[in-house]
Amino acid sequence: MAQAAAVAKPPAPPRRRRASATPRRLPYLLIAPAALLMLGFIAYPVISVFYYSLQNFNPTKPWRNGFAGFDNFTHAFTDDPQFWDTLTFSAKWVIVEVGLQLLFGLALALIVNQTFVGRAIGRALVFSPWAVSGVLTSAIWVLLYNSQTGITRYLADAGIGQYGTSWLSDTSAVFPAAVVADLWRGVPFFAILILADLQSVSKDLYEAAEVDGASRFRQFLHITLPHLKDAIVLSTLLRAVWEFNNVDLLYTLTGGGPAGETTTLPLYIANTSVDAHNFGYASALTTVAFVILLFCSIVYLRLSKFGGGDK
After folding, report:
1. Which residue(s) pair with 67 in the sheet?
2. How far apart are CA 204 and CA 199, in angstroms?
3. Which residue of 108, 140, 216, 245 has the lowest C-beta tally within 10 Å?
4. Which of 164, 234, 151 is nearest to 196 (CA)?
5. Which pLDDT band holds residue 9 (cuts at 50, 70, 90)?
6. What is the pLDDT of residues 59-77, one digit of tens each?
7. How does pLDDT run across 192-249, given as a tens digit for each residue?
8. CA distances (Å), origin 81, targets 36, 78, 84, 244, 268
9. Are 91 and 103 a contacting pair, CB within 8 Å?
10. Residue 285 and residue 265 in contact, taking contact as beta carbons nearer than 8 Å
């Protein structure tokens, strides 16, 4: 007994305290206010658009308001030729703008990526148009296209064209004029993203290619372009969505004219809702535009194998 008592019992291990759930929930609690605001300002309008797309809703004609089912969608696809005209022009606008912006943006990025005197100033000048808003950009180009004080007057002084000519009111010249105006602002976007990705290309790859006798064109084709693949896919997708939804520049520059030559689908939606007060039909057109963009984005990402490497 005494011998057993002499043997001291080992102290019991301290009980582990249950980890408090508060530290794990703290990040979610911190972002909860921002998440609620995003839910209110994004989710609610989206749900409202889907709801009103199934309604006849015109505040100026309340006696006609009510559930319409799929009548708005049926009217858009079967009885509204302007819908197809604006959708066709939107596709043309996106393809031309994104293609040219990518081409010129890639060229500018390759130029300002080189080492030369005044490179910092050159980069600032190249990127500065991107900081200008769409409305201000269109205001600048409206002045440049002015028939009395703009480009056409100086061309007429040089014997090219006639005095009083306005490209923005000429159905054959308004599209190229609008394209040039949007190029001025859109090209820097591609130049910025592509230049940022060019900075991460290892110079050892180019040095090894030079040792193997590869020309500049082959280096660009087999080193630069594969490295820029994801940046090009992402930038073209983002810019295509933005150009499809372009309203501010075309609305301020041409108002969709002349004779509806520069009316995109979003601009047609804006006119239908704001001018005609037909919010139900405008919501249906918005839903159609959303589905088109979603489908095209998914197909484009799948075909381009974005983020999949060189598999």
Report:
1. 55
2. 13
3. 216
4. 234
5. low
6. 888 888 888 889 999 999 9
7. 889 888 888 888 888 888 888 888 888 888 888 888 888 899 889 999 999 999 888 8
8. 41, 8, 5, 19, 12
9. no
10. yes
Distance between CA 138 and CA 168 in Å, rounded? Answer: 12
d(CA 138, CA 178): 9
The DSSP call for residue 56 is E
For the record, the structure tokens of 191 come out as 């130049």
Residue 133's identity, in one-letter code, is S
Could you tell me if 97 and 178 are in contact, meaning their C-beta atoms sit under 8 angstroms apart? no
How far apart are the C-alpha atoms of 88 and 221, rounded to whole Å?
Answer: 33
The CA-based angle 210-213-217, given to 5 degrees, is: 75
Q: Whose CA is closest to 94, among 265, 268, 240? A: 240
List, in order, residues 6 or more apart from 177 with CB less than 8 Å away. Answer: 141, 145, 167, 168
- Which amino acid type is present at position 278? N
Average of per-residue pLDDT across 140-146: 87
- Whose structure tokens read 């040039």? 180
Which among 138, 190, 147, 182 has a CA at the least distance from the CA of 166? 147
The Cα-based distances of 285 to 65, 116, 124, 290 in angstroms read 18, 50, 40, 9
- Residues forming beta bridges with residue 55, ordered by sequence position: 67
Helix, strand, coil % in the chain, rounded to nearest 5: 70, 0, 30
The tokens 């609610």 sit on which residue?
Answer: 44
pLDDT tens readout for residues 18-46: 555 567 888 888 888 888 888 888 888 88
Residue 121 CB burial class (10 angstroms; 0-12, 13-18, ≥19): exposed
Strand partners, 56: 66
Which structure tokens are listed for 210? 């030079």
